[in-house]
Amino acid sequence: MPYTLAVVVPTPAHSNISGPLSYQSELPLAAGTLVRVPLGRREVLGIVWDEEAGAVQTGPEVVTKPIAGALDGIAPLVAGWRQLVTFAARYYQRGLGEVALAALPPQLRDLDGTQLARRLKRVTAADSPGTLSAPLPPNAEQAAALDAISASAAPFLLFGATGSGKTEVYLQGVQRMLQKDPRAQALVMVPEINLTPQLQERFVTRFGAGAVVAMNSGMTPAQRLKSWLAAHSGQARIVLGTRMAVFASMPRLGLIVVDEEHDPSYKQQEGARYSARDLAVYRGMIDGAAVVLGSATPSLESWHAADKGRYTRLSMAARASDAQDAAPPGFPAVRMVDMNLQPKRTVFSPQLLDAIAQRVSRGEQSLVFLNRRGYAPVLACSACDWKSDCPNCSAYRVFHKIDRTLRCHHCGFAERVPRACPSCGNVDIAPIGRGTEQIEEHLGELLRGVRQPGGEPARIARMDADTTRLKGALEEQLARVHAGDVDVLVGTQMVTKGHDFRRITLVAAVNPDSALFSSDFRAPERLFALLLQAAGRAGRDAVHAAASEMWVQTWHPGHPLFTSLRRHDYPGFAAQQLKEREQAGMPPFAFQALLRAEARTQEIAQAFLHAAKAQAETLPDAAAVAIYSAVPMGVQRVANVERAQMLVECATRAPLQRFLAAWQPVLHSLREKGLIRWAVDVDPLVI
Ligand code: ADP
Ligand code: ZN
Ligand code: ZN
């Protein structure tokens, strides 16, 4: 009598199979066992699942097939991992099979049991430990944080300015965990791949190369499998990775660190739109692992959770200044330039330019950022109203002077700049607005007479998505900055992220105002984080810290955001923002989900959303949620696809979750001709 198994298989995103399928096996197999099973005409990798996970789909039309084989060379995925995946699929409204199989390294699909066992052996015969660096004696705040982290698992919010010693707390937190249980494992997450190497270096020198594995999308399939096996088999003590690492199979997880927890990169923006930070908190709870969320500018969600006592706040050297209007000692002074007092069309105020020139002549470095790449965001005709629209998108094509192209940043459509206006033939077509390319060019002219200490002219470099497109280009440019071969670095916000620029003593935001009055309610939060993180880049070298400055050119110098910024006062900023959010009933005081639709026409996209709304009204919990009207997305058409969305909101999480679950089958059943795809985004970051 064969055994019946519930097996999770990789179902396509929009199939209506959301749970496991039934298969037969001659032998009983434990939940979590990897198996190969027939699915349609293919044979796929599946995972034996817990019976209680939901209705196994059987019926007169389904013949229960036998499994093709079990990958018994490797241990089953543990219950905690299965619970994490089940939760993620349910919470983010995706198929269990889609989430579960996407969480495994792709190469696992192609290997049989024997091959896997061989790979596993190679992992087990691990590397020898390298030189181990000694931990630094912790200061009082670090010691208090470490004591708290090793005493309980409750999520911690480690709030500390850049350079306050958070990473040292992560390192010693791992060390204490290993002292208690030498076989325990730690998961350390960073928002971006290019931040991995410098952190990996610190973990490797402390714990040895054999103890640490990386996990991110930049790795080859073979490397990913190797890391995964090292973590899954319990060989790797520390997994260091980007958001995908939250799903790493780690049977003895004792500590989870989410560094720069406020970073939007932790939210997946396609497929299952999960927040790795939020899943980390959930995972810590089910595995009994301590969770540490670290940031100098925490997300308002986490800050609010700490206010309410759901997270334990651990603060490190991040006190706001006692002075009304000045930075605390040891932090860069914030200099505001009131652009209302500058002549029209000023790009660089004389004060800022002078400050940069002084840096150059002293041999120090400056960082100038502007959130717009290209030369100018739009090209326009002075005679008619032609503008460089993209034919495929509801957006302008950006003028790139360097190769004289008009390029759409949404669909990639590029053409050479026309000699004359395509509409009226006028030859006087001109750029409007400024991007990094133009800032770089302009700064070059303005600093022409300025010399380095050795008498050489100032060296200006640009770093943005255009200059770092080629593999290795980013690393090469960063190396040039570190080597001191650049005096002024111009770039997009990319340059403000995590890089340890010790010799930069001036950081300038040339035109950050648009975020102050954005329709996106999270824009001020992101701007404040960006500016404070950027300020943290200046003067990390103690010798230069005293002379470091953060410059902000603005038309709104009295804005409360800048008042808080001048004092490096994140708590003050957060309190003010949270008050506004509470009054407006915005997250974290409300919970949101978006239903997004893409279609041939805007009418079709919206018709789908209207139908979804109409059918929602009869669902249980519908009374508890507010369903707003369907609206076109900010950039409504991309690559000739029309996009619309509809916001669903609720004061508490549970009814929203119940409503979304009940809504799923309804959404799957709607058939709108011309609809391309739809998706639900739970806790969306961009609305
Ligand atoms: P963060 O992660 O908050 O930016 P780091 O942990 O990287 O801060 O610390 C910043 C610098 O201070 C590093 O060079 C680190 O080696 C040093 N540091 C951290 N903690 C201590 C300590 N307790 N004693 C001496 N130096 C420390
Ligand atoms: Zn014209
Ligand atoms: Zn386009």
UniProtKB/TrEMBL annotation:
One of the record's GO cellular component terms: primosome complex
Record's cofactor remark: Binds 2 zinc ions per subunit.
Catalytic activity, EC: 5.6.2.4
A Pfam family that the UniProt record links to this protein: Zn_ribbon_PriA
Keyword Zinc: yes
Cited CDD domains: DEXHc_priA
Cofactor(s) this protein cannot do without: Zn(2+)
UniProt GO MF annotations: 3'-5' DNA helicase activity; ATP binding; DNA binding; hydrolase activity; zinc ion binding
GO biological process, one term: DNA replication initiation
Known function: Initiates the restart of stalled replication forks, which reloads the replicative helicase on sites other than the origin of replication. Recognizes and binds to abandoned replication forks and remodels them to uncover a helicase loading site. Promotes assembly of the primosome at these replication forks.
HAMAP family, sorted: PriA (MF_00983)
Protein name (record): Replication restart protein PriA
Lineage: Bacteria, Pseudomonadati, Pseudomonadota, Betaproteobacteria, Burkholderiales
